Amino acid sequence: MNLDAAAHWLPTVNAALNALATVLLAAGWIFIRQGQWRAHRAAMIAAFAVSTIFLICYLTYHWLVGHVPFTGQGAVRAVYFTILISHILLAVTVPVLAIAMFGLALKGRFEAHRRLGRIAMPIWLYVSVTGVVIYLMLYHFYPSRPGEPIMEKAVAATPG
Predict the structure, then answer these.
(1) pLDDT band at 126, cuts 50/70/90?
(2) Looking at residue 127, which CATH number applies to its domain?
(3) How far apart are CA 55 and CA 101, in angstroms?
(4) Please, is 59 exposed, middle or buried when counting C-beta atoms within 10 Å of its C-beta (0-12, 13-18, 19+)?
(5) CA distance 66 to 156
(6) Domain range enclosing 45
């Protein structure tokens, strides 16, 4: 598989991972509300693993491709950048919050874990959901240049 082909499927993989993380986070919340702490723990560990895989794929994609411009115009542009900026600002907090949550749970500090979870869960859910929304807006509703390679840098750098 060449780099251009990989670049085409990575955004979809990233969106699928974000969607899966959303489902796992919601399941984890439901499980703990029902007192099923073992199922909660499994769902949250899975959500963390999926989010970690997402981050690796996301960084790989942007290392290969670089910046992908949003082509929507008018009011939708303001909506997109509002979602994107809030997504980015909150996304940088998710790894810190998630690791802190795991640390508190591992130490048996469940009251502190619960308090932090009331902050961390909505942020993590928002980031996961808006990741899918950004994907849809950027790659499906307002794609860069339909029919052209996504990998501008790699295509421009190809000798010959």
Answers:
(1) very high
(2) 1.20.120.80
(3) 18
(4) exposed
(5) 13
(6) 3-157
